[in-house]
Write a structure and sequence with these properties.
The complex is a heterodimer. Helices cover 16% and strands 20% of the residues of chain A. Chain A is an alpha+beta fold. Chain A is globular and about 30 Å long.
Chain lengths: 107, 416
């Protein structure tokens, strides 16, 4: 049961436990974390679940696929070096303590 | 429109769910009533033809948790279909007998699966796929069956065909038209989809005349295909969807293959809006290079549902948006990821041309559609970066010459 911390664009900070195997996008939308959209449901079609991973965590995630890299070109806020799509981050015990910031805008 | 009276949303699909989210963002949550015929919180539909069918333990993916609706102050009416609208009294009646007063009403009623009059409802081995209950039934049926016959070579039919094939069923697709996805994709892409599914082991018959439905009221036993009798193990009807307009029509709202709305998503009654698959909306000025019937469109897509819901939320806040979002769509079928953006000109449109942009391999390419010199639509298969950049080109109103845009040595990104 990983503990996740998300910084929302409105300045609020959201900590939650997520069931194993669920994506960061699905967990965050489920909890209603502001700023997380994920309108295609995790099919890598919309780029509306853009997050910046805390630099301390960036290297500990599996790297993005070619499809995710393509979609990162569509984010409303230009992607930076630690940008990821939250739908592609599957929460596992190894991600206990993950910290990320939700992009300012998703569309 | 008044901002302190109830906003009643009928329908909990993607459009209804996004409208809830947009109204909550605008601080209007406590005024919102969401009415759903299904006894189920709004959920993601695209996985129903893929991951949900494949894995028995796969749960529905909810748009928002129950606690989100509660915290937002939204009143949920789940499992309680709207049965009538009284436009004069501004009330909606529900199946339970409850009556909801509204200041604004939004119809997000979606579509229903087309069925065949020869097949009575309730045959144990005949399926359709629109909602979670359909998907749950089909998931069980796929586990009990050894062979699947899909009637109709459209997106839903082909997605389920690929899923069933991966599950180990013998799969046959019967399409009456001379090609797959006839109304939705170019002949080139349709031919590629056909060849890929056939190479994967799916049997596909084009120009198939299907009839002779033999059933005993419990099960469908056999059909005839081009006059030949064939036993049926499991049949999926994938012959399209029809807009769910019964409620709107009974209320006297203008409908014509969809609930007619203006660019701000208002119906013919100014207190009633409509969003999503059930609407037929005016073609935005930017798209008028592509002639469409009656200068109106009806789109069945997640993109259109979400973008219309966001525009409708602005209308409900007293603004006058002009809905003009760029259409995009996707379909995952076995090893193929199809992605489309823009508006495809109908066959025979004056000045229309198609150009192929090669991808990394034979299974990867894009078809670029032009009307005159205007780029109007791009279909991609297994070429996600070209799809993404095509969306950017179309959003930006760029019209690169076909010879340049189809040169694989030129990254589309450089044409922005």
């Amino acid at each position: 049961m990983p503990d996740i911390t998300l910084h929302a664009p409105d300045g609020t900070v959201h900590g939650f436990e997520a069931p194993d195997g669920v994506s960061l996008m699905a967990a965050a939308t489920g909890f209603g974390v502001p700023g997380m959209v994920g309108e295609c449901g995790g099919a890598l079609q919309c780029a509306t679940c853009h997050v910046q991973i805390d630099p301390a965590w960036a290297g500990r995630l599996p790297p993005p696929s070619a499809d995710e890299l393509a979609m990162l070109a569509l984010t409303a806020v230009p992607a930076g070096p630690h940008s990821r799509l939250a739908c592609q981050i599957r929460l596992t015990p190894a991600l206990q303590g993950l910290v990320a910031t939700i992009a300012e805008r998703q569309y | 429109m008044s901002t302190n009276t109830p906003i009643v949303i009928v329908g909990g699909g993607h459009a209804g769910a996004q409208l809830c989210a947009s109204l909550v963002d605008a601080g209007l949550g406590p005024q919102v009533h969401l009415v759903c015929a299904e006894a189920q919180l709004p959920y993601q539909r695209p996985p129903l033809s893929k991951a949900y069918l494949k894995t028995p333990t796969e749960a529905l993916q909810l748009h928002r948790a129950a606690s989100w609706f509660a915290d937002a102050g939204i009143t949920l009416h789940l499992g309680d279909a709207a049965t009538a609208i009284d436009c004069a009294a501004r009330t909606v009646t529900l199946a339970s007998g409850a009556t909801l007063a509204y200041g604004s009403l939004v119809l997000a009623t979606g579509t229903r699966a087309r069925r065949l009059p020869q097949l009575p409802a309730g045959l144990a081995n005949v399926a359709v796929l629109r909602d979670a209950a359909d998907a749950e039934a089909l998931r069980t049926q796929l586990r009990e069956a050894k062979a699947l016959t899909v009637l109709g070579g459209g997106f839903i039919g082909l997605e389920v065909a690929a899923t069933a094939q991966a599950l180990g069923l013998a799969v046959q697709v019967l399409e009456v038209a001379p090609r797959l996805l006839g109304r939705s994709v170019s002949p080139e892409l349709g031919a590629h989809v056909l060849a890929t599914h056939r190479a994967a082991g799916i049997t596909i018959a084009l120009g198939a005349q299907v009839g002779g439905f033999e059933h005993d009221g419990q099960r469908l036993q056999a059909i005839t295909v081009n006059g030949q009798r064939q036993p049926v193990d499991l049949l999926l009807l994938g012959i399209g969807a029809e807009p769910e307009t019964a409620l709107a029509e009974a209320a006297g709202l203008a409908c014509d293959n969809g609930v007619l709305v203006d660019a701000a998503l208002r119906t013919s009654d100014p207190a009633i809006l409509a969003v999503g698959d059930c609407t037929r909306f005016p073609l935005a000025p930017a798209w008028q290079a592509v002639p469409v019937d009656g200068a109106r469109l009806r789109l069945e897509s997640v993109q259109n549902a979400n973008d219309q819901a966001r525009a409708a939320a602005l209308t409900l806040q007293g603004q006058s948006p002009t809905y003009a979002a760029l259409p995009w769509f996707w379909s995952e079928q076995g090893s193929m990821r199809l992605q489309m953006t823009g508006l495809m000109p109908a066959e025979g449109t004056p000045g229309a041309s198609r150009h192929r942009r090669p991808g990394a391999n034979d299974g990867s390419f894009s078809i670029l559609h032009y009307v005159g010199e205007r780029l109007v639509c791009v279909e991609s298969v297994n070429a996600p970066m070209d799809h993404v950049m095509s969306r950017k080109l179309l959003e930006a109103g760029r019209h690169p010459a076909p010879a340049v845009a189809c040169d694989p040595a030129v990254a589309l990104k450089t044409l922005l």
